[in-house]
Amino acid sequence: MTSRKAIITAAITGSIHTPTMSPYLPITPGEIARSAIDAVNAGAAVVHIHARNPENGMPSPDMELFREIIGTVNSSVDTVICITTGGGTGMTVDQRMAVVPEFRPELASFNTGSMNFALFPLAEKYDEWKHEWEPRLLHGSKEMIFQNNFADLERLCIAMRENGTKPELEVYDVGHLYNIAYLVSAGLLEEPVYLQFVMGVLGGIQPSMANLLFMKQTADSLFGAGKYAFSAFGTGRSQMPICTTSVLLGGNCRVGLEDSLYISKGVLAKSNAEQVEKIIRIIREFGIDPASPGEAREILGIKKKV
Length: 306
Hints:
Number of helices: 11
Number of strands: 16
Largest sheet: 8 strands, parallel, barrel
């Protein structure tokens, strides 16, 4: 009997955590690429990529940094690279979107609504910082709106369609599902859509099994069977419980240092691969295996780019 396959995504570095928070957070293009390659070798089918300034670790929209990361990963392993269009705090929508026409990735994140995206509570946990920008960025999020208005969404839909990129639709709250349903009805997004339930950002829905089930039930009512695939993740301590529940509900999941710096209570993860290995051990206890990159493309309807 063939077991069900679930797509495991590894979010390698993100733009939320800062160098002070963990010595294991990949910073340079070489570190980010190596960590992504190790995650793929551990069983991840998809790697989600942000770039950082190699001098101080600050999130960066620099195309040359992305180019180095993507080139190194692609020359080493077969994987689905999902490039961020969320970027980091303070980046313009144009800066965030530029990666799509530049690299024409198979998959790219697509944030589906404007929202408060609050990181400032993290700053209360540290008294000393490696870099001046870290507390400034975190505290500054108290006054920031993460902009993804309907004009932005329309532009991103068009850019992804023109460049053959599958949107990974980041759903931070239930209202974002209705935004996606509108974009489908307007002919801007094609079904089946790929939803990523993001749980735990202050300003969005919080991580609980009840909330995850509510999100899935809402997606069922809006799109129906065969019209969508989904993945989910929880931030911090909720990472593994939400990922496990998502897979048991028939979906996929995302782990990685972007979402949690820990492998267990009070123990920092030394790599993204360590988290990938842990979630694979868990899902295999339920008879579910990790999808290969090729199987992930088949599940998501992605045609591999040469």
